[in-house]
Amino acid sequence: MRGEQGRCPAYGPAASRPSLHARGAGGSYFIALEWVERSLKDEMAQGRPIGWPAFFARIGKPLVAALAHAHAHEIEHRDLKPGNVLLTEDGTPKLADFGIAKIRSKAVAPTDETVAEFRSSLYSPPEQEDTIPYVRDVYSYGVLALQVLSGGKARDYADLSEVLADLDLDNAVRTVLRSCVDFDPKKRPANAAVLEQRLLDAEQAQDHRQARRANAGWLKLTRKAAEALCAVVPGAEIPWDRAKQIVLDDLSRIVHVDYGYIPQTDETDKNTLRSLGVPGSCVSSRTRPTASGMSSSPRKPGLKSGWPSGGNGLCN
Question: In order of start, what are the domains of the chain with their CATH numbers?
Answer without folding.
Answer: 38-212 (1.10.510.10), 218-306 (no CATH)
